[in-house]
Each structure stands twice: as C-alpha cells, then as structure tokens.
Fold these 2 entries.
Entry 1:
Amino acid sequence: MEIKVLKNILNANSQIAEQNHRLLAGKSILAVNVMSSPGAGKTTLMLRTAEELKGKARIAVIEGDVSSSIDTEKLIQAGVTAIQINTDGGCHLDAGMVNSALLNLPLDELDIIFIENVGNLICPGEFDLGEHLKVVISSTPEGEDKPHKYPLLFTITNAVVISKTDLMPYVNFDMDGFCLTVKGLNQKAELFKICGITGDGIGEWGEWIMKNRDIVRANAGKK
Amino acid sequence: MEIKVLKNILNANSQIAEQNHRLLAGKSILAVNVMSSPGAGKTTLMLRTAEELKGKARIAVIEGDVSSSIDTEKLIQAGVTAIQINTDGGCHLDAGMVNSALLNLPLDELDIIFIENVGNLICPGEFDLGEHLKVVISSTPEGEDKPHKYPLLFTITNAVVISKTDLMPYVNFDMDGFCLTVKGLNQKAELFKICGITGDGIGEWGEWIMKNRDIVRANAGKK
C-alpha cells in the first residue's frame, strides 16, 4: 500500500518535472539541481558562481530550505536574483515546488537557474525537478566515505564538487580515495575541487557550467 | 490520502517504539538516539565515548546507514559491540529496525545502547525509536545557522554536541550565536563542545551520559 502511494507521488512528480523541463527548454535556460549535506557550502558556491559568471550569463537561484530565508537574503544582498522555497519540514524539493518558483522568476531575462536543494544527501535523489544537470557538493570535513554511505546521489549526479579544500591540512580527508570511489560509482561524473573562501577552482567549474549552458542553447536552436 | 498513510506509518512506529522502550526499561538499559548531518562525527563520538566509559558502563552501538558497514567495522575493530542496520535507501531509522537490532544484542550484558541514526538532519526527527535521550551533533564547519534552517531536531533534542571544535580557527563559526539560537529553540537542551581528535570535552559528555544511565537504573529499581 505504501509502495503504491509512493509510486503515485513519484509519477506525479515526473509529470511536473517534464513540464518544468519543457518550460526551461523553451526559454533556453540551463537548470542545475545542487544537492549536498547541510553546511557543505551550497550557498557559498552560488555566491562565488554568481561572481564568476557576471557579464557572461544572467543567473537566478531557487533556494530550498526546510525553514528560514537566510540564504536567499545573502544572495539578494550580493545582487543575485533569488527566490525562497520553504518546505516546512519537507526533506527535499519536488517538481511542483520548483514549478511555482519558475512561474515567479523573470524567465525571459535568465540564462541559468541554480536550484539549491534542501540540505540532505538522501531524499533529494528520488525527485527529478526537470533540471538539465545534477550536482553534488561534498565538503572535505565530511570525510571521504560519503559516496560509500550515500551512494544514490553520487551515482546519478553529473558532477561532484569537492568543497572546503582549504581545510585539507586540518581534516583527515583522502582526496584520491574519494575521487576513486566516485569514479567507481559513476564514471561519467565530472570532479571539481573548490574553495569558496579563496575562490580556488571556481574558474574551471564556471567554464563547465557555461559549456553546458551553450549545449542547452544549441539544442533549443535546433528545434 | 498521503497524510492518512503517513499517520498510519507514524502510529505503527510509535507502538513499536513503546515496545522498545519497555524492553530497554526492563533491562535497565539507557538508549540514546544520536542524530546529525552526514560527516558531523557520530562514529568518532561513539569511539571516544566507548573509551571514556570503559570500565564504567557496558555499551553497544546500533549503526544506521543507507549503505555500507564501514562504521560498524571501525567500532568492532576498536572492541566496541556494534550491529549494523542498512536502510537500503531509507533516510532514517524507525522503531521496527531498532527492535530487530535489539533482539540481536546481548541485552543482559549491556548498560547503554547508542543508536547512531542515518546521517540526515531532517527525517530522523519524525521517528521515535523508544530511546530515553535524543542527541544532535552539529559540527563547526557546517556553520552556525543549522538550528535556524533545520529547527525540528534542535527543538526536540535533549542535548546538542558541537563537534570539531579544533577547526574553529579555520572556519567561520559563531559559537555564541549558535548556542543562543539553540537555547532560543530549546531552553532545556544541554550543550557540549567536543573534539574527537584531541578528546576535549568528552569527559563532561561522558558524565552526563552516566548521570542519565543512573536515572534509568533508579527508575527501574522503583518498579
């Protein structure tokens, strides 16, 4: 009985995710679903990415949080277009929530939308949002065993961003072991090593995002 | 419809949680539900606690993980009685899983059982396991805004353990602000500041655990 209900929820979610995808494709907007544990540095990456892509692409951030609007306030203060979704206890964003946010964003003035999911390394993996790319952030203080312990997100993601590389001297994080485990689960996953404080690695990450934005634009042009 | 099903799940969970609680009370065993984000230091705290309580109390750890048995292997290597629950994708432990684990532990030879929940700052808060105490670990690199963004766990917990205090010089963590926010949500929550590497703060934490173990034993004696 529970399984049937879950299937219905997931089917309904998939249908709305497809609507989101069509809406984004129609506007040639790249959408990136950013997932991680709490405190891995999603918002910091968003702030750094906004700086990096300034003048290259017009971006917005959909902020998913159980509660509060702290991150949206930070983004807006930094001049980034951002909209808050509060899940009120919910452990993930779903396609319907993202649809509501999309309808409240100036889509004709945007090139890239980042969807900052709720901080959770498990549940967000079950819900397609209509995005083009999934990205997982994993911070060095969390330890290199995260892909072993939370394999789904690392298996389905397009890229893994290893954040807080500035803490490497102070934490016990086996970078090579981590990268090998990710590649073992998901050979196609791109790997980026970044530091939100110093900006290290943000250039390479920004280039990859822009490359994917060009692909979305080229695909839209073909239609 | 979904709400009804969820209620049924939670009702069924509560009934098994009560069974667990009676079973533990009958054996005068203190049970502690340990919850946190992935990588906040749950297993490290378990290892340090086992050292600290050696000769004072006989402990066991029930290890909850989506996948893998890495943490149970670490504990067993350190001589700690431990049993693994894999949720196979599930985002929290429920009372039924803990019941199965309890039935596989030598209860007559134990004083304290730590239940290391799945790394998730949201979903475990919805599921009572029959424990006496809930404990939330929050690590300094996660940032001081976690109680604002994930309020449920911080509101229902008996104690908050602030871990990785050795990283304070390298991360932007407002300790006073964090403690004030926790107290604002939950005036009764005990606060402990610990470092799993140096052992700082483990003594005070161990004393609190032993005090609670004595309360469980005294209550059992009264019956």
Entry 2:
Amino acid sequence: MYTRPSPLGKSLDSFSRFLAAFRRFILKDDMARLVLKFGGTSVGDLERIKAVAVRVKAEVEAGNEIAVVVSAMSGVTNRLVGYVEEISPLYDAREYDVVVSSGEQVTSGLLALALQELGIKARSWQGWQIPVHTDSAHAKARIISIEGGDLIDSMKLGEVVIVPGFQGVAPDGRVSTLGRGGSDTSAVGLAAALEADRCDIYTDVEGIYTADPRIVARAHKLDKVTYEEMLEMASVGAKVLQTRAVEMAMKHAVRLQVLSSFTNKPGTLVVDEDEVVEHELVSGIAYSRDEAKITLVKVADRPGVAARIFGPLADASVNVDMIVQNVSDDGKATDLTFTVTRSDLERAVDILKKNKDDLGYQDLASDSDVVKVSVIGVGMRSHAGVAQRMFKSLADEGINIQVISTSEIKVSVLIAEEYTERAVRALHTVYGLDAK
Amino acid sequence: MYTRPSPLGKSLDSFSRFLAAFRRFILKDDMARLVLKFGGTSVGDLERIKAVAVRVKAEVEAGNEIAVVVSAMSGVTNRLVGYVEEISPLYDAREYDVVVSSGEQVTSGLLALALQELGIKARSWQGWQIPVHTDSAHAKARIISIEGGDLIDSMKLGEVVIVPGFQGVAPDGRVSTLGRGGSDTSAVGLAAALEADRCDIYTDVEGIYTADPRIVARAHKLDKVTYEEMLEMASVGAKVLQTRAVEMAMKHAVRLQVLSSFTNKPGTLVVDEDEVVEHELVSGIAYSRDEAKITLVKVADRPGVAARIFGPLADASVNVDMIVQNVSDDGKATDLTFTVTRSDLERAVDILKKNKDDLGYQDLASDSDVVKVSVIGVGMRSHAGVAQRMFKSLADEGINIQVISTSEIKVSVLIAEEYTERAVRALHTVYGLDAK
C-alpha cells in the first residue's frame, strides 16, 4: 500500500497526470520516455539515494515517463563477492548470482521508498518480475530479451519504474547476473525494450572529453560522439561506459547521454553518425597504460607459424591486441611484436617459453613500460593524412613509435610510457582540440 | 554449473544415491525427510555458515533427504530495516519487503556454496521460485500454501534444498515477508508441504527446560512437550519458538525438535499429545516479567461497563491479559484489576484517564513491579488439586497472589516481581521437577 497520498495529494496527482497527457497528445509537446541509470557512486549511501530521488522527481515533473536502473550501493557488491569467494573459491555461478544480485535489489527498493517520500509514485521491479531474460551463462550472462509491457503499463499509471541493474533471469528460472559493470547494459537494454527517447547514464564524470583532463588542461567536454568513436575510446581505456552497453545502444539505435550525478550540466550524447552534422577530423585523444609488449626474435617465416604462436595464447584467454611482423631479410626468419594487457604478460611469456621448441624462435623480449596512444574520429574516414600528421607530430617531440595499428576511425601507436603526457598534449594541440 | 564433481566424485555420488534408495525401498530403513532451520545466530557469520554445512552434511550422509531453512546473518536484517526507516518512516511495506528479504537470500546462496564445497549437492530456492504463496499483508504476511513439488524432485536427485526463511510471494507477484521471526513459520510450513518426518529448529538453547536454568539450577531439559504446552510456554515468555510456528505445527501435525546448533545433543521434541506416553502432572514452570497491573477502584457494577473499559484499549491495540473483577459489596460498585504488557502501561493509563467520566470509576492504581508465574502441563487435565498445590506452596513461602488465571493446562498467578526466583524454585520442587 502507498502510505502517503492525502486527498489533496491525490487530486494534485490526477491533475498532473491530466496535464502530462494533454501535453503529449494534444500539444505534441516534447515530453519524453527516459531511462536513467545511476551507478555505484551515485547511489553510494542513503544520502546519495535521496539526492537521486530529487533528480528523478525533477524529470517526472518535467512531464517525462521515467524508468530508473540502479547499481548496488558502494562497496556492497565487493563485500558480497568476498563472501562467496571466501566460502567457495571455485563457486557455482548460479549461487554466486543469488548472493551478488541482492545488492541491486536493496537499492531498487530504497530508491522507490525515497521517491514515495517525495510524493512521487514509484515501484521496484526485479529482473525475474519484468522479466529480463538472459542466457544461462551465470555470472556473465547476456541479455536475450526484456519484456517491457508491464513496465510501460506501470509508467502509464504515472509510476516511476525502478529496475535493479546487472540482474536477470536465466532460462532455468534462476537469477542471473551480467558480470561486473553490467548495469550499463541493463539500462541500454531496457531503453531499447521500452523504446525510450534517451538513456541517461549518470556517473562521476561530466561527459566524454577530448582527452583526459588530468593530463590535458585544455581538454573540453564533447557535446556529441558517435557510437563508433565511443567504442574505440572504450577499447583504449576510457572506462566511462561498458563496451557491451555501447554496442547494444548502437545495434538498437538507443540515444545515450553520459552525465554527472554530482552537477546539473548537460553531458555528452552518444548517438548515430547521422545525428552529428559536422564531423571534426579527430574527436579525441585517448591512451591506455594497460599494455605490455612482447617481441619474438627470429621466428621461422613460414605458413602457419602465427597460428602456432597465437593459438596457445587464445586457449589461455590471453587477449592479443596490436601485432606487427617485420619483413624478413632472407625470407627465412622474421621478428614478431605484439601487445597484451599487463596483467596477462607473465602468463603469456610463460606459455611462449614452454612452447619455444615448437615455435622455433631465437629469443624473447618483453617490455611493460609502454603506453598506447590513439587519435579517434569518424571524420578521418573521409580525410587522408591524419595518421601522417600524428607520426610527424610525435617525431617532432622526439618520441619513438614502436608499433602502429589503425582502424577506419582510429590510429594507435605504442610508445614508451614516460612520453604519455607529452604525446597526448601535443596531439591534442595538433588536431585543434585545445579549448579556446 | 557445479564446478566440482570429478569423475570419482560422480561415481561415489551415484553409489551413495543407490545406497540411500536401497535403504529406503528395500530395507525399509529409518531414512527420513527432514527440514532443518537455522536462525540468525546459527548463521551469524561465514564461519558459522560453514559449521552449519558440516552439520547438514552429517544428516545427508545418514541417508536423509534434507531441506534447510535459513535466516539472515546476524545484524543484517536490523541494518536493512534501519535503511528503510531512515529513508521512509511510514514506508510502503511492499518495498520494505524487497529490501529486507535480501538478507535471507544471501544466506541461502552462501550455504548452498558451503555445502558444495564439502562435496554435497545443494541448491537455493527463493520464495518466488518455489513458490511460497502468502497473503497480501506485506511485512507481516501469512503463508497460504507452499508448492513442494519442485523441491521434492530436487531432493530426489540427491540435492539439499535451501530455502530462505521469512519470505514468500504475494498474490500480486511481489515479494512478501512474514514479519520478524517468521523463519520458524517458514520451516514448519515447508515441513508440512514436504510431508517431512521432522522439523528441527536449531537455535542457541539446547531445548525446552522445566524452568529457566538461570534461575533454577536443578532445571532439566524435557525430552518431549506437547504443542499445547509449547503454546502456553510461549505465551508466558519462553521465546524459543514463534507462537505462529507452533500453531501451524499443531494444525499440520509436524513433529518439531528444538535443539542447539552449538552442541551435538538431542533437543526437545514438540509433538502431539498422543506421542507422550506418560504425562507428568506439570511439565514446566514459566514466568514473564513483561507484565503490568492496572486496578480501577469502584467501577459502576452494571451491564456493559467491561465493554466500555476494554473497547478503547483494544482500539489502541493494547492487549489485556488477566482480568479479575471483585465481587461488589453492595451490588453498585466493583474493583476491576487486569494486566497489560509493560510497554503498553503508560498508553493504557492515558486512555483510561481520558475516559474517566464515561467509565465512572473512583480511582486508578497501576503497578509494573509484578511478574506472572505459570505452571504448565497437559497432565493437569485429568488431575484435580494442581492449582491448590500451587497456591499452598506460594502461601508457605509468604508470597501474596494478586491475580489468578487458568486454562485447561495452565495455572498462572501474578505476584510481586521481587519474589520471582523464590516462587519459580519452590514450584519446581513442589511438582517434582528437580533433576535427580
């Protein structure tokens, strides 16, 4: 039972519902259906949850239909995961999901209560109630479909629907979770299911910047980036949005906004390329320190050797990123250089050393004091010379390029880690990104 | 997925299943289906949960089919209730249930993992998965029915089924909770649904005693008590079992055992009267300090006055227990004495004073330094003189009896609190309960 509505509250409520309907159907007003997602720091404690309620209330009073996706309160998921791992290091993922999904459940109920306390109708919906159908890969499940019907009915009754992120229900009817950070994916999936006008991801940064503001003082917030750019940024370490969430948004054409729950400023829109009228050549400069380089010296240069090298690494779930094979002098042996994440370096080297006889290389060198710096922008599709300008700029700074890789909208180089700041700042200036 | 079973484990497992089936169907062995319930202190932390798993494993290896009901870990429910009350003092009970039920959910998953870690197959089942159907009185719901089919199938596959206590699902499909202490009721309800041979309630005492061992050094643990006796004991303050749980056990003829999770001794069986071959005259001496006495002096002695006095108290949810009306000397006025719980005393006195003119009494006296002492035993049904012996014994001790009330299997007296220990000890001796 709702404990609150006084007779006056009820009639005010009817009136505001009438008003919203009038705006939507008669005035064709820009009332919208929005999904708002609040991460762990945004719902960190009871005070923050109350603050989120105030923000949601403002969106409701602007006449919008609102669905909210929430994470667990700060530290809760870590505590629950710690319990599981202490009891059973090689845990049954289905029971892990039962334990760990409870954190989001708690936040969803508390936010519903906080909204009711502000006079806003609200109701929590657990993953199994909606339902959010996932596959059976417990602890790292993927969303298969979300049935939005009950939620839409609830919103049409003027209720804010509150959905715990990160959780769903597997084909066997048991609770599933999407893996750490899965709440972004929950929000995007829900926005697609509800045909929402926008999915706002509230976080602790104000949006997507042209570069890391801690390194580049003149970095500025972007109004818009494309899905493709966002994906490239995520792949080089800008961990604002989960990659899977961006991919899903792109697939279902869900307009995303990344913004801060601690300020009242508009954030960055992540949208389809068509929505960006004029493309800058380069949208941003990103970097990733989570890189390590391995060089195999004098590998036999014959068919099948690459497969024999990278096969065992893939089997051990070592992700290989940039790969460069030098042209061999004599057609018999070649040097092969590639990068892995730093945490995988030791394991990768072990595997390669164990297989040394089979692979037939002469020597192995590794280096973890490297960084990957990337320039990203959909504009470079239609412009030549972007990479050339990058290489020249780095050369002017006296920075040696160790490995190069490119995609349609990105050029990445591996350089010595000590030059990170100098490289990022130089490129930010060269591509005209410095704030005026 | 179960992460463990090695090929050897699997064949051992098949063998032990075969053995259990052989025992049950061929040997007609005394293999049993048991429900084990572990309260908050029994699952207080991770170490305690692991200890519970060891205990459950022993029951499994004895060839029994096991369902386990668990409470939340110590302090968790209080913390969650605190969150709810801080955010919304007059909370929506449906959201309260979403938040508060998560505590038992976590324990159920962790115990399943702890059992798996010991090589025992185990699976948690949430209230909505079973389902445990309750009415719609969120936060204080009553169980309507429990569908035991899936759980029985699971147990037949050799799995321990683990059920979070206290929670169910309401007719609207939302999570419900049974109110504080409801896990006992969950366990008994489950035992009825599964047609279990016994429901073991593990707690922090070793069973039901003839009297409070802190007062009577020679008190001894009872092997058996009847449902009726248990109910009377609960009503006079022996808070070992929830009253609703005992009522439900009686209704469905579920054999209960109360025992300690901290020792390895048999506890006390709570059973139907037929199972107790020889009844002691008196099974135990109980007392309750949570009593206060109110006397209305010179109330008009005319029809309807009792209703006018007790009506407003009932409206204010003040529970009135013992009532004595003195014979009036002249047929015009009478003294009325009754008891309420101490926490209700102030409120009761306020109400009576406000209505003084209407009730027409001359004076009001109240006293909270009183205690209710009871002798309880189904044997007294067929024996006269039990009450008389009690009154004489207290008189010999120089203890004045202020109020008397009786039921078929209980005699209670209200005396000054300072005599509690003396009265309980004297009665324990008089009725032959002192341990040899």
